[in-house]
Amino acid sequence: MPPEAVPESFARVLDLATALWLGFIGACIGSFLNVVAYRMPRGMSVVWKPSHCPRCGHDIRARDNIPVLGWLILRGKCRDCGERISPRYAIVEAAMGAAFFVLAYAEVFTGAGNLPGQLTQRSGAWETVWNPDWALIQLYAYHGLLLSILMTLALIDQDRQRVPWSIIALATVAVAVCTLAWPYCHPERTRNIRVKQWKAPLDALFGAAWAASPWIVWAGVRWFRGQGDAFARGFNALAAGAIVGAFLGLRPAVRITVAWLMIAGITTLAMRKSQRRWSSLLTLWLLTLLHLVFWDEFAHLFSW
After folding, report:
1. Out of 19, 134, 155, 299, which residue is the most buried by the measure of CB atoms under 10 Å away?
2. CA distance 21 to 33
3. Is residue 96 part of a domain?
4. Is the residue at 1 inside a domain?
């Protein structure tokens, strides 16, 4: 059926059904990220042993492992021993599901209308997903990978663990491959580079350097003052910022980093008074999602 022959009412229902399907995939990814964030810093395999209760050791049944719903059905307790299951698992699954759902409407169904410049004239789930526009799907997967990596880093940092080098290596390889193969993943790439095929890779490099620079300066100042643990304390933030900058490029990195530093400072002071912990990387994840959804608007407001 040609796109113009699809009734508008059917197109809207198909958009919603497709977005819910993509949101469910995002929630499943969130469930896996919970496992990765817990096991990788502790040197445990994320593949060989199924999800299980840390108290009684029983494997979690398939029907109880449905994202969000499984936690609600169990009322936040292990079916076998009654051990409390942290609501964090369901919150992460819901957050990732919501991110994939929103990004589907903002990016896929608009033909990347959220980005500066027009990637394609196609729009709606029927034209972009079910009659695949592969460039658009690749872009969506690229941004979904960024949000997934960033959520993993945020969860690890929330647990006061250090980000494993293997995750940083994965992000580096992904950026290197995607910027060379899909330069449209960097729609605001620098205009000063004359060699076209190097515009996106260099934009990724500049973005990573910018986003990492505040934490490098902070660590240098602390080291100069004799506080030798500065690099270790700021490593997670440095890695996360560099990954965001590499994935999105210099201009987005500037906008996100400035907002991140401002909000992170306020949040840190508020959490200090309440004696609670909120990882600044969670703030970075939220700001990155917000920038992806409203990228074009931010580019018109704050650009150079």
Report:
1. 155
2. 18
3. yes
4. no
Q: What are phi and psi of 249, to 5 degrees?
A: 105, 175
Does residue 110 lie in a domain region? Answer: yes
Per-position b or e across 84-111, b if 16+ CB within 10 A of its CB:
ebeeebbebbbbbbebbbbbbbbbbbbb
Entry pTM: 0.92
Domain tally, the chain? 1
- CA-based nearest residue to 143, from 186, 180, 173, 113: 186
Radius of gyration of the chain (CA): 21
Token output for 291: 């920038």
Q: Could you read off the pLDDT of 5-15 as tens digits, one per residue?
A: 678 889 999 99
Q: How far apart are CA 45 and CA 37, in angstroms?
A: 11
Q: Using 70 as the pLDDT threshold, list the residues of the chain that sit under it.
A: 1-5, 54-55, 57, 190-195, 226-233, 273-275, 304
Please indicate, yes or no, if residue 187 is contained in any of the structural domains. Answer: yes
Residue whose pair of structure tokens reads 């006061």 in the numeric block: 160
Beta-bridge mates of residue 59 = 52
Phi and psi at residue 135, to the nearest 5°: -65, -40
Q: How far apart are CA 108 and CA 275, in angstroms?
A: 41
The domain in which residue 257 lies consists of 6-301
Rounded Cα distance between 73 and 68, Å, is 9
pLDDT digits (tens, 9 = 90+) for 237-251: 999 999 999 999 999
Distance, in Å, from the CA atom of 83 to the CA atom of 246, rounded to the nearest integer, reads 41
